[in-house]
Amino acid sequence: MSEPQVEVRRSKRRRQTVSAYRDGGKVVVLLPARMSRSEEKRWVEEMLSRLRRSETRRKSPARESDAALSARCAELAEQYLEGRAVPTGIRWVAPMRTRWASCTPSEGTIRVSRRLREVPSWVLDYVLVHELTHLLVPGHGADFWAWVHKYPKTERAIGYLEGLAAAAQLDLDGGDEDDEQDGGR
């Protein structure tokens, strides 16, 4: 990938902050006027790196579309569920009031809250494995958790989601009561 064109803009009013943004095909980096050329070079590289990381997170395949979400489910089902969990449909939905995601095993469908678009990929992967497992085991019994725990970051992801729900003061309890919509994590 080629480096984008960079335009550096210095400002006497800017004292210490550095920022950058895309403007068409170029990156504009805003710097304090007093900054040295070597500091400028270091900050331009740093800001390009930050922009790339930010754009990579936003463009993560599992976050772009329902089709990409479906493709990720296929990968996870193969890796952790012996390829046995195949949903008939999976899609992003508006934020749910009491769930991160839900599954209707009788229909083979999975719905994932758009709230999860911003979580780390390993957390989203856990939620997908959780919901895919409901296609094999509808309840939350020991056999269900035996499958889910094949995903190595299960406990870590559960902790992350619990912390996220607490911080946002969401009433997301994990939904361990069994119903047609599963509850999911």
Automatic annotation (TrEMBL):
Record-linked Gene3D superfamilies: Metalloproteases ('zincins'), catalytic domain (3.30.2010.10)
Pfam family, one: YgjP-like
Domain YgjP-like metallopeptidase: 87-151
Record-linked PANTHER family: UNCHARACTERIZED PROTEIN YGJP (PTHR30399), UTP PYROPHOSPHATASE (PTHR30399:SF1)
Protein name, as recorded: YgjP-like metallopeptidase domain-containing protein
Lineage of the organism: Bacteria, Bacillati, Actinomycetota, Actinomycetes, Actinopolysporales
